Amino acid sequence: MTSYVPYPKCSFHEVGGSTLDSHHGFVVEYGRDRDVDLGFHVDDCEVTLNVCLGRQFSGGDLYFRGIRCDKHVNTEYQPEESFDYSHVIGQAVLHSGRHRYGARATRSGHRINLLLWCRSSAFRELKKYQKDFSAWCGECQREKRERQRLSVAATKLQLLRRQGDNTVASNC
Ligand SMILES: O=C(O)CCC(=O)C(=O)O
Ligand SMILES: [Fe+2]
How many other C-beta atoms lie within 10 A of the C-beta of residue 171? Predict the structure, then answer.
């Protein structure tokens, strides 16, 4: 193993990363007589640690397509949310569990990865009472920006109308 990744206690604050209190670990294997790829999904956790253990393989890239809350999990992605990651043996990737992603086909060889799904019971409890996840959901953020844009446009229109009324009144 060539790299070291600290336990993600202090990362991913906005998705519960600072209150992680349990985890679930497992190994995935791809190759001959095993899985080929993995479909588009989100993990059942707040933070995912994915360590590429080996062995020799080609393919198997991860394709990420934006972080989403439950309500927006099936929405479109924006071009800037598209990110591909190529596994490197001995290295790990750490990402939000709400990041939508999948694994492309392992084209040859045998790929083995260790997954650690880190969870926060406090974050899960809080989430039940929240409706706006614009702190981390890309689609909540987009909707919020759109609401703000419409509100600014409506205010501008109101001001212009008022200005017009005043001009008419002063000309009478
Ligand atoms: O194949 C990988 O590297 C990722 C596996 C994965 O996303 C999962 O098991 O949830
Ligand atoms: Fe996953």
Answer: 6
**What local confidence, expressed as pLDDT, does residue 10 receive?**
52
* Cα of 102 from ligand 2 centre, angstroms: 7
Atom in ligand 1 nearest the alpha carbon of residue 60 = 1
Question: Residue 115 maps to which CATH number?
Answer: 2.60.120.620
Give residues (CB < 6 A) around ligand 1.
28, 38, 43, 50, 62, 103, 113, 115
**Side-chain half-sphere CA neighbours of 3 within 13 A:** 14
pLDDT at 43 over 50: yes
Residues 154, 149: Cα–Cα separation, whole Å: 9
Q: Kindly state the DSSP code that residue 125 receives in the 8-state scheme.
A: H
pLDDT digits (tens, 9 = 90+) for 53-69: 988 999 999 999 999 99
Rounded Cα distance between 92 and 163, Å, is 60
Contact predicate 67/100, CB 8 Å? yes
User: Domain total for the chain?
Assistant: 1
* Nearest atom (ligand 1) to Cα of 101: 7
pLDDT of residue 169 exceeding 80, the answer is no
Would you say residue 139 lies in a domain?
Answer: no
Give the C-alpha separation, 34 to 81, whole Å: 30
Mean pLDDT across the chain, nearest whole number? 92
